[in-house]
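Hi W.,

Here's what went into the run:
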Amino acid sequence: MSTIYPVILCGGSGTRLWPLSRKSYPKQFVPLIGETSLLQQCADRLRGPAGAPYAEPMILTNEAFRFVVPEQLMAVGVNPGPILIEPEGRNTAPAVLAAALHLSSSDPDATMLVAASDHVIPDTPAFHVAVAEGVRTITDRGDLVTFGITPDRPETGYGYLKLRQVPDASGVSVPLDRFVEKPDMDSAKAMVAEGSYLWNSGIFLFAVRDILAAFNQYAPDLVEPVQKAVENAQSDLGFLRLDPDAWRTAQDISIDYAVMEKADNLSVVPYAAGWSDVGSWSAVQELSNPDADGVATSGEVTAIDCHNVLVRSESPAQEVVAMGLENVIAVAMPDAVLVASMDRAQDVKQAVSALKAKGAKQAESLPVDHRPWGWFESLIIGDRFQVKRIHVHPGASLSLQSHHHRSEHWIVVEGTAEVTIDDNVQLVSENQSVYIPLGAKHRMVNPGKVPMVLIEVQTGTYLGEDDIIRYQDVYARD
Amino acid sequence: MSTIYPVILCGGSGTRLWPLSRKSYPKQFVPLIGETSLLQQCADRLRGPAGAPYAEPMILTNEAFRFVVPEQLMAVGVNPGPILIEPEGRNTAPAVLAAALHLSSSDPDATMLVAASDHVIPDTPAFHVAVAEGVRTITDRGDLVTFGITPDRPETGYGYLKLRQVPDASGVSVPLDRFVEKPDMDSAKAMVAEGSYLWNSGIFLFAVRDILAAFNQYAPDLVEPVQKAVENAQSDLGFLRLDPDAWRTAQDISIDYAVMEKADNLSVVPYAAGWSDVGSWSAVQELSNPDADGVATSGEVTAIDCHNVLVRSESPAQEVVAMGLENVIAVAMPDAVLVASMDRAQDVKQAVSALKAKGAKQAESLPVDHRPWGWFESLIIGDRFQVKRIHVHPGASLSLQSHHHRSEHWIVVEGTAEVTIDDNVQLVSENQSVYIPLGAKHRMVNPGKVPMVLIEVQTGTYLGEDDIIRYQDVYARD
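Here's what came out:
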């Protein structure tokens, strides 16, 4: 059996789960169901079963998420494989092709398992069995394999896969007849009743050799730009940054449209053990083990006399009380709260657009700002001062910088900082402070083995993040 | 015309408007309707019309609110009259009697206007006209005067005043026939239809001489303990602290039960210009100018396709989105959120009890803690650190204190502090910091004419408010 290379598509930036999911930190990074994020659950699942030849996962993501991805993977003990940075989102066909080309250069016999980073698949062993059936299908028939979800309702939000026959309960793959676009309700009901239609999950298993052949046959125009983007990719701090000029000339198209709907050697592994793309808060409610009254809660929530609700408090410092509610979603964060009818779960992005139109930063950003060296959070902004909590990973370093309009007081509250101020370098430990005068060149480094946390008190007439002059930066930022 | 002495009852600690109103900072102190608090609106109303002989208001409140009351009054340019501290709440009869006895000692001819601090009365000129009618009634008939609200609905939550005749539209007072307890809905409908029943507002106008006579006649057992509590009251930092031993022997009883229902010389001034005791969030919705769809919002709220809702964001840093809601109340604060059916507005205190039972501090306390010298707010609490914003009024001083378990870093971000650390006294101005080692005796004073704001970063193994040893305190606290 050839090695299985997981390929995780991690570029999504959906707003349908606002306020928890925001453009700056979308749903794959958030603990939506359970303690870990969807990406972490995905990476954990793609370790494969004990003894199976699964490689470290390759990740395709974008510039903004390049530091969060390895941070989250390492936090659950998964070493990331290659991290390919897409200069901009071009949909799934260029992404899968880039992954296939990159794999092919090191292992032409590779098998690639393509998965989205933001799906919920509760039964990991069942998923591994399905992957093994996919491998068998490739070996026996040389097909391109897609995974089809046995529908439990006439969903109109998904595309369907029409199989050549009704699959039996054993999970054995069935050749594909054709793709079916998102249906209307009557068609969806008919398909679910008929039995040979499964949901198109967007999970694929390919012999790299076969999918490259399919791209060459059905989407030859994609191959040249993507090949150039991969060949000219820049290796940068462990990331592989696809060549932006070549990448931008590749068509923005899904792999279904570009290849799968045209190919005639497709098989579907049926999957009935539970799957969701978590496309709305009502999907989250269903996945959150609601009680007999349909009440699903998470965090510090007190729900009294409610029916069919999802009530979440996303901060341990925020108590949420729900009383007498019916068919309501309430998701509370200290900086943003959504309260919506369950029937309007599909329309949350409309609310985000309204917020964006009024200029609210909560439309797209979280109070916590993730950076290559860790993260910071603004605790309070006054007229001429701001207080931040700054969390620096072990071994990480902020840039050497100065500010025109503010001074800073740093008080270390956890760990140890190595602080540079102009020509002076000093160690600052817990319960010690330093002062950074306006204009001084300064840098903080965490030289230790544990996270370093400091409180920064800024004073000055202008406190914007853009009052920064960077002299040196290990992360190569301007 | 004798001087009118406003007497504001400011001891309430209701939970029906949680989370905005909490036991530690109840609704009279909160800007519920408009920019100022209900107490401030009350005090402003009780300045009286131009040229009328209204004295500075006397306030009856409790220990916990004694510093907030004058702070709020002075913020709207009202000098507080005597502030009487009730050692514990004993309902309205002892409070009114104490006020009458205190007034009588300095002005036996006084007229007292008793009002709750937490009512909404939108039409101040109309209220002044009604008070003038009350004065006329006292002069002409020597009656005790109460104010009756013309009902606009068959409310079952109020007691009613049965007048001897249906009042005309002129607002002329009518002798009272009798008090009616909170009715059932059928009785309420019948009374409203009949026309001679008004709501009992709890606002009174008395010649001090007459109300004292009434207490002596109808509630003689109250007079001795309350008289003793007033005579033995301790003057303390400008407050008059009623004698606790005497006060506790006074019966806990309302003035209606103790006196008004027994007296035979009562008149009612009818009042039809709008009044609310703001007893629930649904009352707030009605008072908040809802649009044609019944949508009332305040703060940073985006409401889409809602009907009959109240949606409030109580922090400029918190965006609230409401979508597709019907008959819902949503009140959001960074530390607590209420989402409830409008029909359950009366049951909010049940939710507060549930929160209290689970030990949530949000049941009774706000993040901001008011103190005699100003206030503070915890910005973040970590394992071994805490960050606070501390706001000190001009001229105010914290106690000289020390801590066993924590050190403190103080960074002044607005104004100037005079800081004592052991034997050293120094001025610390904006953008300067000082360090208070564990165990050091320290104090901060605001010697300036503008508020002083500092950021305090505490580090230590125990950060509770009770790790404090006070050596000297201008506010006489232990």
